[in-house]
């Protein structure tokens, strides 16, 4: 599956308009996601319990948060430490079935969860946690001890391949199989080389205009849609090659740089209204009754509905 991008491109929309969103294509073959998934009672009992856990609350976070620095603010020493720690992860043993090393674990997990975490409102939150977890594993298992990084793609719109990030010094150059830099020879999950294309028409959509347009959205569903199908999709398709292949795109280390930009703009959009930091969306019945928040319906006795059962 390739990345869907919004037809509402602000500049040079020709690439985008040719790509219909999958859900709108009536000729698209039905996949297993369209049929009811069933477990018998016996199978259900064998399913491992949901491994939800709580992250230990970090006391004092608001007064002393970790800071992510933009690539251009990041020293050469920091850049090398980052690339070296990612390379270190590639030398560590896999812990996930179907993966060949610890770095690939992330791409395999991303592939396995892919239908649940794209094209819906979980997208931004899941990828936020995924990126944070990647950072933590770099620290815990490969000794990475610098501030983390983000990439302001608007400064490179239309010319990603000219950024020094995509050089043999750091993430490797942009064209064809990745065969220079620390990650030379890196393979995709599922086989084949990690490759890139670097198409300017697509990366041009990672623009200040497009970012500002999405940041102007007044509610989460509209922002999420704009951001996922807009610059997020164009960045993937623009780096191209492995990055344009949704499920396994984290096979390319550049994935994490791209998603740092996606996450940063989500945070900037949240900064504009505190309510955006406590709620992602309304539950909508299309106007039959007013839209409500999760908190309005999660407790039947404390919210919009107020009812209980006889037993
Ligand atoms: Cu993804």
UniProtKB/TrEMBL annotation:
<dbReference type="Pfam" id="PF00264">
    <property type="entry name" value="Tyrosinase"/>
</dbReference>
<feature type="domain" description="Tyrosinase copper-binding">
    <location>
        <begin position="252"/>
        <end position="263"/>
    </location>
</feature>
<dbReference type="InterPro" id="IPR002227">
    <property type="entry name" value="Tyrosinase_Cu-bd"/>
</dbReference>
<keyword id="KW-0479">Metal-binding</keyword>
<keyword id="KW-0732">Signal</keyword>
<feature type="signal peptide">
    <location>
        <begin position="1"/>
        <end position="20"/>
    </location>
</feature>
<dbReference type="InterPro" id="IPR008922">
    <property type="entry name" value="Di-copper_centre_dom_sf"/>
</dbReference>
<protein>
    <submittedName>
        <fullName>Tyrosinase</fullName>
    </submittedName>
</protein>
<dbReference type="InterPro" id="IPR050316">
    <property type="entry name" value="Tyrosinase/Hemocyanin"/>
</dbReference>
<feature type="domain" description="Tyrosinase copper-binding">
    <location>
        <begin position="118"/>
        <end position="135"/>
    </location>
</feature>
């Amino acid at each position: 599956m390739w990345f869907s991008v919004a037809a509402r491109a602000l500049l040079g929309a020709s690439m985008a308009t040719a790509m219909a969103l999958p859900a709108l294509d009536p000729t698209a073959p039905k996949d297993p996601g369209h049929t009811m998934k069933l477990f018998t009672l016996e199978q259900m009992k064998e399913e491992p319990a949901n491994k939800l856990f709580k992250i230990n609350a970090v006391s004092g976070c608001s007064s002393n948060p970790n800071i992510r620095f933009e690539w251009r603010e990041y020293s050469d020493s920091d850049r090398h430490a980052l690339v070296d720690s990612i390379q270190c992860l590639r030398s560590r043993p896999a812990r996930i079935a179907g993966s060949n090393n610890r770095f690939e674990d992330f791409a395999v997990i991303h592939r396995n969860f892919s239908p649940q975490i794209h094209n819906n409102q979980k997208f931004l939150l899941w990828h936020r946690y995924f990126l944070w977890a990647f950072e933590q594993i770099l620290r815990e298992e490969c000794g990475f001890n610098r501030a983390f990084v983000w990439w302001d793609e608007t400064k490179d719109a239309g010319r990603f391949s000219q950024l020094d990030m995509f050089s043999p010094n750091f993430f490797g150059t942009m064209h064809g199989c990745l065969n220079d830099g620390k990650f030379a020879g890196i393979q995709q999950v599922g086989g084949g080389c990690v490759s890139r294309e670097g198409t300017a028409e697509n990366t041009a959509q990672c623009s200040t205009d497009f970012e500002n347009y999405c940041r102007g959205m007044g509610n989460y569903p509209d922002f999420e849609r704009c951001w996922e199908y807009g610059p997020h999709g164009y960045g993937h398709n623009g780096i191209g090659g492995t990055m344009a292949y949704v499920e396994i795109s984290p096979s390319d280390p550049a994935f994490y740089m791209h998603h740092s930009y996606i996450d940063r703009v989500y945070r900037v959009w949240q900064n504009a209204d505190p309510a955006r930091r406590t709620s992602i969306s309304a539950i909508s019945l299309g106007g039959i009754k007013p839209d409500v928040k999760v908190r309005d319906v999660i407790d039947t006795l404390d919210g919009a509905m107020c009812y209980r059962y006889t037993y």
